[in-house]
Design brief:
Blueprint lengths: L4 H43 L4 H45 L2
Helix pairs in contact: 1-2
Length: 98
């Protein structure tokens, strides 16, 4: 028996949520990787005296982390701004129609 409209819609919602959760996992993994690289390289740099190349590599990993988080923050602020503008325009359109 073929699935009904409701069953197929629920199946599509499951796929949608799976894609969203996978995207969130990737977005969470990248800064975690940079932070892990920073920690391990800094520990290596300070373990026996001071290792300048390992220290520099650790600082570079931290720089990548903050660059990634800054770009992600800017993207989210732009999206919030667009959602706000669309919401205001929707409210104005709804009130003008009455």
């Amino acid at each position: 028996m073929p699935p009904s409209g409701l069953e197929s819609m629920l199946g599509m919602m499951g796929v949608f949520y799976a894609v969203i959760f996978l995207a969130c996992a990737v977005l969470y993994f990248v800064p975690s990787l940079f932070l892990y690289q920073h920690g391990t390289r800094m520990r290596l740099a300070f373990r026996s005296g001071f290792d300048a190349p390992a220290f520099h590599s650790g600082v570079q990993a931290l720089r990548k982390l903050f660059t990634f988080m800054g770009i992600l923050t800017l993207i989210m602020l732009v999206l919030y701004g667009l959602f706000f503008i669309v919401g205001v325009l929707g409210v104005l359109a709804a009130t003008m129609g009455h």
